[in-house]
Amino acid sequence: MELDEGSVGDLVALGLARYEARVYLALVARESYTAAEVAREADVPRQRVYDVLDALVRRRLATTSPGRVARFSAVTPELALTRLMAVQRESLERMECVKEGLAAALQPIFSDGRTRTDPLDYIDVLRDPKAVAERFADIQRQARRELLSFCRPPLLAPAENAEGIKAVRRLRRAGGTVRAVYTTGSLADPAVLANVRSFAEAGEEARFAAELPLKLVIADGSLVLCDMPDPVAGAASSTALYIEHPALASCLRLAFQTVWDSAATGGTEAREEAAGGAGEREDRPGRREREDRPGEAGGRRGLRGNEA
């Protein structure tokens, strides 16, 4: 017997197992069947058909006639479907009660959770040098009004910061501020000194200090990238922090301004002092005059690359 698979699917949707649906549809087609006959007609394994028939009888979708060989009949489709729908409604009512109780229990937890935030969700901890370099490039790209930096050794690949040169030029064209404070000792490195001059030509203002507390970049008074040297291991071990926090950025900006106000403005002079070149200046008349010319040392940067 060919069974309508669409009807089988509909009965499954009403709560029957697929074998139960096939056996019921087979029973509908005749007044009664033995278990062996209905197994053959419904294409259900003989060893499974007895369990299927018992389930249909318990659901009151089929009846059994006693005798030497038991026979099974389907109840009328209208009655069978009504009983299946009743079971589904009862199930839905139970699920509705469960839903209401569960919603009542979970809603306060959900509402309470909306008022809580991760206390460190505005801080990224960076230990991979590549990740630090990517975030440094990113903070330079994001700067729109101001970019402030503390540049202290060790300096990593200072000549590779093309992103920084572009950021300086963009900010200066827009009337923004780009300032950096460098350690005088770093100017003894020719590569750093050349990079300082490149940033000066791009429009960066620079000053020089004997010591700086840490490497630091502040963008627009809201974004901060800084290193946190291990207090035990020292410079050999450091972790970088990227922080989006205007209050902290404003505080660090004040610290930057304090150092900036007390830092030296003569880059070449600072380099000579770092190299012990006081006598060299005496031996080279006119050197001081060249240092004081506008643009000669007013905007040089050495901490460019993967510095933060």
Q: Which helices and strands appear, and what pairs or packs with what?
A:
Layout: H1 5-13, H2 18-28, E1 33-34, H3 35-42, H4 46-58, E2 62-65, E3 71-74, H5 77-114, E4 123-126, H6 129-142, E5 146-151, H7 162-173, E6 177-183, H8 190-202, E7 205-209, E8 216-219, E9 223-230, E10 234-244, H9 246-262, H10 267-274, H11 278-283, H12 287-291
Parallel strand pairs: 5-6, 6-7
Antiparallel strand pairs: 1-3, 2-3, 4-10, 5-8, 8-9, 9-10
Q: Class by helix and strand content?
A: alpha+beta
The shape is: rod-shaped
Tell me the span between the first and last alpha carbons. 79 Å
**Uncertain stretches of 5 or more adjacent residues:** 270-308
What can be said about the biggest beta sheet? 7 strands, mixed
Order of helical and strand elements: HHEHHEEHEHEHEHEEEEHHHH
Q: How many H/I helices?
A: 12
Radius of gyration, in angstroms, nearest whole number:
41 Å
Spatial ordering of strands, largest sheet: 4-10-9-8-5-6-7
Share of helix, binned: 40-55%
> Quick check: average pLDDT?
81
Overall number of strands: 10
Strand content: 15-25%
Defining key terms:
single chain; 308 residues; alpha+beta; seven-stranded mixed sheet; three-stranded antiparallel sheet; 12 helices; 50% helix; disordered C terminus
Question: Nutshell version of this structure?
Answer:
With 308 residues, the protein is α+β, with helices and mostly antiparallel strands. The chain has helices spanning 5-13, 18-28, 35-42, 46-58, 77-114, 129-142, 162-173, 190-202, 246-262, 267-274, 278-283, 287-291, and strands spanning 33-34, 62-65, 71-74, 123-126, 146-151, 177-183, 205-209, 216-219, 223-230, 234-244.
